[in-house]
Amino acid sequence: MLRGFYTAASGMISQQRQQEALANNIANANTPGYKADQTSLRAFPELLLKQMGSQESLPTTQGGLQFPIQKTVGSINTGVYVQEAIPNFAQGDIRETGIATDIALVGGTMPDETGSLFFTVQNEAGEVRYTRNGNLTVDGQGFLVTNQGYYVLNDAGDPIQTNGMEFTVSSEGILQTPEQAVQLGIAYAADGNGMVKEGNDLFTGDAVQAPEGATFSIHQGFLEQSNVDTMQTMTDMMNAYRMFETNQRVLRAYDESMGKAVSEIGRIG
């Protein structure tokens, strides 16, 4: 019976964590470039139960011999858990804004259709990070930055100085100002599943400068929207809620049975 408590409780915890991931997706449904999290549930390793005991041999002499025996009962599973949350790097819808500092990274694939492409930025600690959010602006010093204030980097890993809003970005990612032309830093991650979310639309992980053969285009005055499917996410949230309630009822039934075992059976004995 105690094992049933753990199984039902693990089901409730896993559904709660799945619900939290889905709620976070809904909260970021309007965040440009946001990639929805997909949770995966996994069962705990199965246990093999065996009945252990002893068997007395035929008494040929006084006080027969005892031989240990093991009888296989079967396997048992002790519940599930949320193994990981994997970002879905599918392309979001592209929306026209008409704002010069909004740029959308469209496509972002390799010839073998693996991996993902990102804008390269620099966080407040001076570390390189990656994002798909092209909702940019120009700070007071004339640098191109994200809305959170992170410097947007060029292909040499340096912040991009625009000295104002008078600049254009070609489809190949060449940013042109009256003084210079620089290539936006576009990074390629061969294993998209290895990229880890860090908050504020930033990713960290193993990524390199986009190699030759990477197919993408930059659209100035456009934004890539979140790829959250709100209708499907709401349906998944309802399913997770129902599964949580089901495990809750099972847990309550075990609790009532345990109460009877303690109060009624114990009193009869």
UniProtKB/TrEMBL annotation:
Record InterPro entries: Flag_bb_rod_N, Flagellar_basal_body_rod_CS, Flagellar_FlgE/F/G, Flg_bb/hook_C_dom, FlgE/F/G-like, LlgE_F_G-like_D1
Keyword Glycoprotein among UniProt keywords: no
Compartments where found: Bacterial flagellum basal body
Flagellar basal body rod protein N-terminal domain residues: 5-35
Cellular component, GO annotation: bacterial-type flagellum basal body
Domain Flagellar basal-body/hook protein C-terminal: 220-262
UniProt record similarity statement: Belongs to the flagella basal body rod proteins family.
Protein name: Flagellar basal-body rod protein FlgG
One Pfam short name: Flg_bb_rod
Keywords: Bacterial flagellum, Cell projection, Cilium, Flagellum
One of the GO BP terms on file: bacterial-type flagellum-dependent swarming motility
Domain Flagellar hook protein FlgE/F/G-like D1 span(s) in chain numbering: 115-175
Source organism (scientific name): Oceanobacillus polygoni
